[in-house]
Design brief:
It is a single chain. The chain is of the alpha/beta class. The protein has a domain of 177 residues: 3-Layer(aba) Sandwich (Rossmann fold), CATH 3.40.50.150. Helices cover 42% and strands 18% of the residues. It is built from ten helices and seven strands. Strands 3-2-1-4-5-7-6 form a seven-stranded mixed sheet, sandwiched between helices. The chain is globular. The N terminus is likely disordered. Bound molecules: S-adenosylmethionine (SAM). The site of S-adenosylmethionine has 19 residues, from helix 1 and helix 4.
Length: 269
């Protein structure tokens, strides 16, 4: 990866059941996020399908459908999926843009090991590869990609502005950035149902599988994400003049889309 990461010491904040519980106010936050994803890597996909009641299987394909409606003409020959985890979105992107070369990047070794151990189709073997890298300092040259995606990663980043500027740097002008993320439903009724489930049932399910910390962290992490309007404003500030937010499932998740401008504010000469 581009820069050495801190050693994966086995200390740090924990829930009562001993599982990692990252705290954003601590200087060790990034390392603790990595420890948390190391802890849940093995059952990650299975737990995600159960906790989202299967909806996550629809959210990623729908996000790519929204991407196609947003994107202007031009090939997608090179794509990067940041925080690829076990590779669910990276694999979909590989199949969606059959001719593209796709890179999945993640800073948690255990998640990448699970991604690599998935039985790959022929197209995945030929077109998809994985690298260990942090979203805050991407190991790619300026303008390397036509498309950058990420799903359920933004909440975990210590510095969204730095991450967005890095994405802008590695995209070609006119390239598109897609972020799929959990968001607050705007309807008060749906919002109440959502929080009853997300703040209580999901941590309870997590504690049933020895992961109370990660699934207590999940609703906390949502509170630190900017609201959709501020999220789009930050993207614009980071060099993306054309932006859009497309809610799914009554706003429980949102697909944020952003087109990289021609300016070179984040690109080296
Ligand atoms: C909730 S998982 C999402 C995985 C996958 N994108 C999906 O759709 O299932 C978040 C992933 O982001 C990764 N991640 C979090 N912060 C990161 C960072 N700063 N740099 C790279 N990867 C990061 C974690 O290691 C984890 O694999």
């Amino acid at each position: 990866m581009a820069e050495p990461v801190a050693s994966e010491a086995d200390d740090g904040p924990r829930a009562p059941d001993g599982s990692p519980l990252p705290d954003r106010t601590l200087p060790t936050f990034e390392r603790d996020v990595r420890r948390m994803f190391t802890h849940i890597a093995r059952g990650y996909e299975w737990f995600d399908h159960v906790a989202s009641l299967g909806n996550d299987l629809l959210w990623r394909p729908r996000a790519l459908w929204e991407l196609d409606r947003f994107r202007r003409a031009g090939p997608v020959a090179r794509a990067l999926d940041i925080g690829c985890g076990t590779g669910e979105l990276a694999r979909l992107v590989t199949h969606h843009y059959g001719a593209a070369r796709v890179v999945g990047a993640d800073f948690t070794r255990a998640m990448l090991e699970n991604a690599a151990s998935e039985s790959a189709t022929r197209s995945e073997r030929e077109h998809l590869g994985y690298v260990r890298a942090t979203a805050l300092k991407l190991p790619f040259a300026d303008g390397s990609f036509d498309l950058v995606t990420n799903a359920f990663v933004a909440r975990n980043l210590s510095d969204l502005r730095t991450a967005f500027r890095e994405v802008h740097r590695v995209l070609r002008p006119g390239g598109v950035f897609l972020t799929l993320e959990i968001t607050e439903p705007s309807s008060p009724f749906v919002n109440r149902l959502f929080h009853a489930y997300f703040d209580r049932v999901v941590p309870w399910l997590g504690s049933a599988v020895g992961s109370e910390g990660p699934y207590r962290y999940l609703p906390r992490s949502l509170k630190t994400l900017p609201d959709p309007g501020s999220f789009l404003a930050l993207l614009s500030e980071c060099g993306f003049p054309r932006v859009s937010a497309r809610p799914q499932s009554s706003g429980i998740v949102t697909t944020f889309l952003a087109e990289a401008g021609e300016d070179s504010v984040t690109r080296s000469r």
